[in-house]
Amino acid sequence: MSFDLKARTWDSDPEKRNRASLFAVEITGITAGSIINKALEFGCGTGLVSFNLKDKIRDIVLADNSRGMLEVLNEKINSAGASNMTIYHLNESNPLISAGTFDLVYTLLAIHHVKDLDRLFYDFGRIINPGGWLIIGDLYTEDGSFHINDPDFDGHRGFDPEDLKRRIIAEGFENLSIRTLDSIKKVTGSLVKEYPLFVLYGRKH
Fold first, then answer.
1. Taking Cα atoms as reference points, which of 135, 131, 122 lies closest to residue 204?
2. pTM
3. Which of 23, 65, 125, 180 has the fewest Cβ atoms surrounding its Cβ within 10 A?
């Protein structure tokens, strides 16, 4: 999937906007009562989730490796005058581990594109402050048809969240919980298929 090519029309999909809003509501509910001064969105795309949170969090770093997505995001930040939102272009020179430290890291439908999940979770464990939150929204295990129109896709076919839970606990997180967030409907010919999403969240001890 070329996210650079899709960046200009990404926000025009009402389902993407609604899903981002729903995830932001989940984040707000999960972290209620916690002091969140600085947050990072991993795989931010055009920032749909973070724009729902920008008035609730003092500073937000938005990280992605798609230059096209970040160009659109930069335009949105400038247009909104959102001075508390900062872009971080993930690449070999700017690895996640160097992005800073955070009270909250959240990510929606991004980690199934990451091959080395153990490294990603290791990095999450180093950039999240003690007591800070990790909140992941992604696909339950699916049959591979979710990316059927993306022949170059070489990521994960969703996840068993219990497996992710075990791997994340190994990086110093505790009190992890899982619940169903939503589902994505895709139409192929006359067939409508639903792909459920989970939210997995916990705190760094």
1. 131
2. 0.96
3. 180
What is the per-residue pLDDT for 157?
A: 97
Tell me what pLDDT residue 2 has: 78
- Annotated domain spans of the chain: 3-204
Q: CATH says 3-204 is which class?
A: alpha beta
HEC profile of the chain: CCHHHHHHHHHHCHHHHHHHHHHHHHHHHHCCCCCCCEEEEECCCCCHHHHCCCCCCCEEEEEECCHHHHHHHHHHHHHHCCCCEEEEECECCECHHHCCCEEEEEEECCHHHCCCHHHHHHHHHHHEEEEEEEEEEEEECCCCHHHCCCCCCCCCCCECHHHHHHHHHCCCEEEEEEEEEEEEEEEECCEEEEEEEEEEEEEEC
CA–CA distance from 175 to each of 111, 142, 165, 178, 180 (Å)?
Answer: 21, 26, 10, 10, 17
